[in-house]
């Protein structure tokens, strides 16, 4: 059996940073949606992100794979790029029209549970153990406690069932693409980020044009929100995500999804003066306990250094 990936202090810091970045994204999306339609919002995110990462990649020499690869690798990369960007961006943009925000939060947290069986069968060194499985279930329970009953309340819309399926399908896309990233040959993280964003660019723009027509004119605050979304939660965070998956594996990367609802609640309290739920402390304890259980070996090695 292949040994589990050695998880470093740098990996822990990157996962923590991803939790903060993605947890604060909902605030910026809320601002952006005041002045732009959902599919054009998704398109703007990818346009800004691919432009920035593409320029950095060109400056670095535009290298991708360390060694020559066959046609099958390019097919795998194309599917990975679509499942990392285009498909989940479109599904979430459409699905959030018909479901509660709480259900969306639980859907994103479910990525961690979806990754477990996929990584067990497809990624050497990511075999499922009882401690890892129990830890992820405890962490997921913490997310449900944090969001509360509103996660499963009906939104009252006619297409709610399709909205829920869209959100869960987006989570499945993130889970599958995380595992597929690990199956790719050794690659430059910046190049891999740029190419996956380029792959998502064409289908997202096509859907936006076909369904919502030409892009609307936007005001200054909306443009600024779109720029922030593209440059930080999309470009920066996607680069971090790929670096974590390549370094520590998809199962460790999926710990980010438990952090997102916590930071979303805290950011809402800090920025929008929303009340903190009384369940926050219990949820935090459950989530940290789940992380501790699932990553017991990595934490032990980290603190022994």
Automatic annotation (TrEMBL):
Domain of life (superkingdom): Bacteria
Compartments, record wording: Membrane
InterPro entries xrefs: AA-Vitamin_Transporters, EamA_dom, EmrE-like
Keyword annotations from UniProtKB, A to Z: Membrane, Transmembrane, Transmembrane helix
All residue ranges annotated as the EamA domain in the record: 13-147, 162-293
Membrane topology, record value: Multi-pass membrane protein
Pfam families named in the record: EamA (PF00892)
Cellular component annotations (GO), alphabetically ordered: membrane
Record field: transmembrane: 12-33, 39-59, 71-92, 98-121, 133-149, 161-181, 190-211, 223-243, 255-273, 279-299
Family (UniProt): Belongs to the EamA transporter family.
Protein name as it appears in the record: EamA domain-containing protein
